[in-house]
Amino acid sequence: MPNSIKRIASMEDIEFFDICEKEQTAATPFLEQEKDDDDSVTDQFWNVANQQNGKGHKIGEESEEEDKIRSKDASEGVGEDNDSSGEIQERHMNNGNNNNNKTMKYADRVQILNLRRNLNQLDNIAKEKDLTIEKAREELSACQLRIEMLTKERECSETKIEEEKEAGNTAAIFHLQAMHRRLCAELGNEKELELKIASMLKENVYEMWQIEIEQGKFGSLREQLEQDEEELERECKERAEQRIQKEKTAARLAERKQQVGKRKEMEACEAYERRHQKVVEDAHRNHEKAVQFLKKSMSRIRQKEAKEELKTQKHMEKRMQAVLSLKNNITSNRETLRTLQVRDKAKALEAKKQEMKMTGAILAEGGDVTKEIFLHKQRVELERQKQEFTEQQKSRKIEIVARILQEEAYVEKQKKHQARAEALRSQGKLQDSLQWRIKTWQYIENACEDPAAAVLQKSWRTPSACSLVDDKSSSVVDFSEKALQDTSYENDDEEANETLAEPEFTGLWSQECNLYKVPKDETDPKPLGASKMEKKIFTENLEKLRSGIIRKQVVSGHEFKGCPFYSKPSLIHFKDFDVGKTYKKKIILINASYSVNFCKLVGVSEHLKDFINIQFDPPGQMSAGMSCEVVVTFKPMINEFLEGKVTFLAQNGSFSIPLKCTTKRCVLALDKELIDFGTHVVGETISRTIILTNRGALGTRFKLQTSAGDNGTCTTAKSSLERMVNPALDGITSEEKASSSPVESSIYENKEQVSPVHTEEVRQTCMVGESQKMENNLGSSHVEQLSQDALITEADLEAENAQSPAEPPPEEAPIEITLGKVTEGEVGPFSSIKLQIIFTPSVPGDVHAEFEIAFDNPNCKPLHFAVIGVSVDVPVWVPNPNVDLKICMYDRLYQDCIIIRSRAKAALRLKFEVCKELSNHMELLPKTGYIQAQSSFSVQLKFLPRHSLPEDAGKYFDRETRVLEVPMTIMIADKTKPVEFIVHAIVTTSDLEISPAEVNFGYCTIYEAVQTTITLTNKSILPQEFGFVGLPEFVEIQPSDGFGILLPLESLNLDIIFKASKAKEYSFELTCKSEINRQFKLSCKAVGVHPPLELSHSLVKFAATALNDVSTATLYVINAHVSLNCFTHAVPRIGKGEIAPVGPTSFEFLVPEDSPVTIMPSVGTVLPGKKCLIQVYFRPVLSEQLIREEAVQMLCRADAKRTMLKKIHESEMQKRKDETVAGKKDGKKPSFAALRQPLRVRSSKHAAASSGFEPPKPEEIKTNSEEYIAAQYSLIRNFTGTFERYIIPCFVASGDIDEKKGSENLKYSPYNTLYLELHCPAVAPSVVVTSNNGKNIVNFGEVAVGHRVIKRITIQNISQEQLALGFSILNPNGPFLLVSPVGTLEPGENQFLFISFCPNESKLFFETLDIRSIKATLTLSIIGQGVAPSIACSVEGEVLDMGYVIAKEKVTSTFKIQNTSTLPLRYSIKLESLSQTRDKEQQRLPFFITSPPGWTDFVGTQNYSGLSVFNIFPVEGVIEPGKSQDFTVTFSPDHASLYYSDCLKVVLFGKEIAREIWLKGAARNHMMFVEGGDPLDVPLESLAITSPMSEEAAKGELEEPAKSLLLSLEYIQGETSGTPAVRELKIGAIRTAQFASKKNVEFSLDSLPVLQQKGFTIEPVKGTVDRGQIKCISVSWVPPADFDPDHPLMVAAVLTLKGDIKESYKVLFIARAVCT
Predict the structure, then answer these.
(1) Sign of the dihedral through C-alpha 297, 299, 302, 306
(2) What is the end-to-end Cα distance of the chain in Å, rounded?
(3) CA-CA distance, 1638 to 1666, in Å (whole number)?
(4) Which are the contacts of 170, defined by CB distance < 8 A and separation ≥ 6?
(5) What is the largest CA-CA distance in the chain?
(6) 842: three-class secondary structure by DSSP
(7) What DSSP string runs through 362-396?
(8) Which residues contact 1062 (CB under 8 A, 6 or more apart)?
(9) How far apart (Å, rounded) are the C-alpha atoms in residues 1200 and 1193?
(10) What is the DSSP secondary structure assignment for residue 920, as one 8-state letter?
């Protein structure tokens, strides 16, 4: 133990020193800095030490045993701590003197901390040990106190035992003795505990002494440690003072910097004031100048408005005329259409009349109407086509003649044109650049003046194969030639562009022009030695190549169509070229065809040959996807735009690559066309920037100037119409400019290109476009209204202008919009320049100015842009003149802040006024205020509407709409015109109405909840939040727990659920609070009822159950009422009524009729403290009434279908009849079948009409009918699912229901009723049974025990999903077996289930087979009755003896078998002699050798002939229940033998042997026989067949040798007397037709005296036996007096029989006596 303690202490030291070393390592860089950093390190170590001390405080929370162990560890480990602390102390003492003069080092601090930690740990251990000692002492004192108490109790019990012994109370003595033993045991335990505690206390005291000794050793170390800590604290204080000095120095420096900054700020403010004063003075001067030019500006604005109104009026007149003309055109068109329709109708009516007449005429003649009319229509149509063809031919002839004339004129003009072109070519090219420039300008002028010249500059396209055959044969005129044509040939060019030649029939001409044909002389480059065939083939190929005939490329059955080669890039573009330089571009041609192709360069356009050079090396045959390169070199000689193409020829067609050469040019644009400065106060200066951008490669100089006639002056304020319309137009223009029509976009684009002269036209166009946009967006009604207002305003303004004389304009007009410093300069290529526009408003009104940017480059058209601005002179305004407080409630305070802005240069005094009517409801604060120059001022609006507002407000309040509009006034000092703004609000109430005002829940049991519905109505037009607060525990409000939001004027139904907690009378109030803390009360009453019984579950939720499936739930009825004490627990009662009696309590569940719910048991009695199990079954089924109604509907639908088919059939018959009648009129005889079929139809129709279908009533449909089954199957398939909710009452009454008799009822209270709520969802079954008429019951009926019957059941999946089926396990020891389970069922699939039934005992068997799927379970009920087949046989015993028969004769016997079971029995009769195993058994040894004694072989002697000795009829059949069957057995032996036998077996159902009968018989050759005695031979014959005796021998020898008979008798000697031994011999005569001479048999027995002497008595001794009769000879024996029991008595006698012959039998009598 000490070693472990030392180990623990050392581990703690190691951990602590590890922490210190890590912290020392981390703090090393900081120790090298200033001394201030040491403070933070010291703080860290102090924190670590405190954490270590904090861990020590957890020791006191441990258990006593842990305290003991830890105290021992600590006491034993004190030595280790002492050693370590001693070392620390020595080092500390050595370093103590040195630390007085210099600062303490880091290692010293660590040592101090470590020492303090060790001392603290030692102190903590001492405290813990002291606490442990105190606890031990307390426990010891408590233990001693308990010992004293137990001792006293023991003495007291001993005293009581003595007293009870004297009193003789044995029971009390036993009780006291048991208590005495218990007290002795407890006293012994307490003493042992006292010893343990005392020893533990001694150990703790000893350990405490050791700890105090250790503490005494560290006394000097503590003093030194305290001195070191004081020194360390002093150093910390010194560092803190130094740090404070540094901070003060830094604060002084910061204060000095702040003063300097304030001084600079004041100087800046003074400079700003000076600048501001200067700006104010400049503004005053500008204002004075602006006033001078005010009148001139006003007159100019009026003139401008008059012009605009005049233009608008003209525009409206034009529109009105256009609308009227459109209306007239529509009217005339309607009349024309109406006339045409009437004419068409008349024509159609006339044609119909003609057709009817023709039909009548044809019918009168007896012809075929359909055929004649069809032929007539064909003739009419043919005539019409002929006429049209004739007219078409005439028109075509005229057109051909006209075209021929045009072509002749065109050919003549073309010849003249070619002659002039050749003359121009002969002149040669101009060498001087000036001449080229003159030609270029002439071409440009012609192109601009002549629109036909633009046709020459077509966009490139890929030409067809016919148009690009050869450049030599093309009729394209050179570009330069077209450019140099005179204007006198303009008309000729227009006519030349027309294509006059057209083919007579479409498709004749496949080429656009006549192809050049090469003469044959040039097509024979072959040598003279070639053959004629080679020359011909070569000539044809060359001709095809030159004529452009191409070959189709077909690969794998697919013909290639399209361009054979693709080029990269697709356009050869030489951009921004300079004359004299050379440019090269490389293009790549890729074979895009399906197979091998080649490429040949044809050339470039004719007008590009002087500038373009093509370097192309034909690569030969190229596979698909391969490429080749083409280098195009361009050396421009003229500075013109060139466009053409490079043409190539491929194997399957020609293709071309477009080529374009563009010169350097200027592309100038502005970033905006309109600069809007917005609204500004007079005297301000605002600048905006517009950017001029050159996107071209050619630079130019520009000049910014104002447009002609524009001075940038201001206009007056707009009219009310313009202020209303123009913002809308501006919005429409800005929003829809991008998506406007082409006309509008062209208008916007033309703003850059229009000249200054046409500015007014452009402006008119813009106004027209804007008005059209406004019509499209605002609608025709709005436009008409606006146009009317505009006309009225124009008229008023004209009248005003006419009345007021025109004032002469002033000499100088103020220019408010000016240009910046940059007004001209140069725009370089691909660069931009910013231009500044300055707006200095001087006169209130609108200002508009237009500017133009002109360029030195004549090809660049001037750019225009407009500048607008508005200047105002209002000192104070409200940005939001309409203050909308939205919807307000009565008695609620609403506030809003109103911002007022000032444009004035000085402060203004404002006064805020509210109208007198609303002075009690509305207030503006403050009422007076000063607004500073060019600043804003906020006013607080307070609105507190009271209920008197409608009466006080008067005209400002609308009672219907509850809208309040209050004008507010702001008075400005020294101003007569006030500033007004309007406050809008809608005032509404905040009431909530609850109906009804009082709720009575009635009687409610504590096991249920009562629900009632209330209506909460919001009378306000604002949505209000509400909530029922402070609800009792027994009340619940739903939905949302009584919280929610009511929309304006909305009513919400709330459910109040009351659940009584105990039996008493309840009266309470519910409080509903609104969001404004208004309260609304609702009074409630209820009576709580505690029933005597309770249900374990009051709500049962069944799972979704399929039709005909069953779901089961289990619950309990509990009787917890066992006591009448109402103070200890709640007792059953109604309110404060009487308490229910304790005893058996009965219940009864009242299940509704025709419900799918069954409760078992529904009636019962529960004893106090007991519970009764209740099972609830839910089996959804289709109601019989619903099935019957569906059956009636199906019958009606089937009848309707039959009726429809019958009508169709009748219509067909009628049609055939009509055809027959028509055939008669034509002279044709109808066939016999055609005549007979309508008669048959007529008779059936008459029968149907006479028997008229009447649908049966639903009650008449039987449940086992086909209609009922089909309707049930249809409903199951179409079942969509239902959800039913049932509440089952359970009546409770006190008493036992079994004790009541007859109709006597128990007393019960309806208030004690319990309720069981059932949720029953029913769904359609996924699997149904389609066999057995859809029944889920498999009834095997009665089956014999041990026999197996298999039935097949068909199931079908009627769902839309694949189902995986599972089956429940049938009883493995039961008779039912599922033979073939099914794994899966596809949708709509049918599968078979095979179930076998093999009963093993006679009883009724019942099992259920559940077919489970994911959705539902189908339950099959399997029933079978096992019946043990039982029969009754008329044969008594097991032997049927056929008797004696004369050999070769027959005898029959009949027996009866009756079926005593309840099922038909299939039987079969089998003989053992005919068994298949009989032959094998005959090969074995005889039974008398191998078999044990008593075993008998049923099969005896058989006939020699091989035929069966015994024959039975019938052999097989069926015996019905309760019936019987007669069987005939025939015995026919073929030789004499006494051992004929066989076994007859009655086998049922081919398996079970129900009865075995031993058939016996004997055959003799003579008519007499003796039977009886003991057997002397084996019952088997020899295998050798002995031949019978001949007749002669029989006649000669009428007496057979004597045979032996043994007759043994046993006399049984009892105690008192003996029983004589008795045996019998039977002598019989066989009934036979033979031996007619001898009718009877005589017998006699000799030696009678000897027998009598020996004690034998024989009776009769002789006699006769008739045929068919048997007589018995009785032999009895009593031992004679001289009988020796040890020696048996043997006596012989001869029995003689006389019949057809004489037979003698030697009878040997053996007698013996036996003692019991």
Answers:
(1) negative
(2) 96
(3) 10
(4) none
(5) 203
(6) coil
(7) HHHHT--HHHHHHHHHHHHHHHHHHHHHHHHHHHH
(8) 1006, 1088, 1090, 1130
(9) 10
(10) T
Distance of alpha carbon 1269 from alpha carbon 23, whole angstroms: 94
At residue 227, the pLDDT reads 83
Q: Rounded to whole angstroms, how far apart are CA atoms 1697 and 1375?
A: 64
Please give the Cα distance from 712 to 817 (Å, whole number).
6
Tokens 């003692």, residue?
1715
Place of tokens 């005593």: 1460
Neighbouring C-alpha atoms within 13 Å toward the C-beta of 100: 6
Neighbours of 1701 (CB within 10 A): 18
Angle at 1233 between CA 1229 and CA 1234, to 5 degrees: 60
* The pLDDT value given to residue 1484: 56
Nearest to 1267 by CA among 1323, 1330, 1196, 1337: 1196
**Coil, strand or helix: which one is 56?**
helix
User: How would you write 932-975 as a 3-class SS string?
Assistant: CCCCEEEEEEEECCCCCHHHHHHHHEECCCCEEEEEEEEEECCC
Quick check: 1618 and 1678 in contact, CB under 8 A? yes
Exposed / middle / buried, residue 580 (Cβ in 10 Å: 0-12, 13-18, 19+): exposed
Q: What residues of the chain score a pLDDT lower than 70? A: 1-104, 421-535, 537-551, 556-557, 681, 708-814, 873-874, 1223-1253, 1298-1305, 1476-1498, 1578-1601, 1716
Q: What residues have CB less than 8 Å from 1456, skipping those under 6 apart?
A: 1433, 1434, 1524, 1525, 1526, 1527
∠ CA 696-697-702 to the nearest 5 degrees?
65
State the angle between helix axes of 106-167 and 36-56 in degrees (0 to 180), rounded to the nearest 10.
Answer: 10
Residue among 1559, 1440, 1448, 1546 nearest 1510 (CA): 1559
Strand order, beta sheet including 1404-1412: 1337-1344, 1417-1427, 1404-1412, 1366-1367
CA torsion sign for 915, 919, 923, 929 is positive
Amino acid sitting at position 370: T
**Distance separating alpha carbons of residues 1388 and 1060, to the nearest angstrom:** 54
CA distance linking residue 1427 with residue 1343, whole number of Å: 6
Contact indicator for 1562, 1538 with CB cutoff of 8 Å: yes
Based on the number of CB atoms within 10 Å of its own CB, is 1583 exposed (0-12), middle (13-18) or buried (19 or more)? exposed
3-state secondary structure (DSSP) of residue 819: strand
Q: Which amino acid is at 361?
A: A
Output the pLDDT for position 80.
40
Say how many CA atoms lie within 13 Å of 1075 toward its Cβ: 13
Which residue matches tokens 């004489």?
Answer: 1702
- Torsion sign, CA atoms 1462, 1468, 1473, 1477: negative
Report residue 1066 CA to chain centroid gap.
49
Report which DSSP code applies to 810.
P
Q: How far apart are CA 322 and CA 329, in angstroms?
A: 10
CA 1574, CA 1576: separation in Å to the nearest integer? 6
**Do 692 and 833 touch, CB atoms closer than 8 A?**
yes
CB 639 within 8 A of CB 580: no
Q: Is the peptide bond before 844 cis (omega within 30 degrees of 0)?
A: no
- Pair of tokens at residue 462: 């890929």
CA separation for the pair 348, 1692 (Å, rounded) = 144
CA distances to 143, 815, 1613, 1710, 1713 from 1716, rounded to whole Å, are: 90, 170, 6, 19, 10
- d(CA 1290, CA 1149) in angstroms, rounded, equals 4
Give CA–CA dist 611/429, Å, rounded.
14
Helix, strand, coil shares of the chain as percentages rounded to 5? Answer: 40, 30, 30
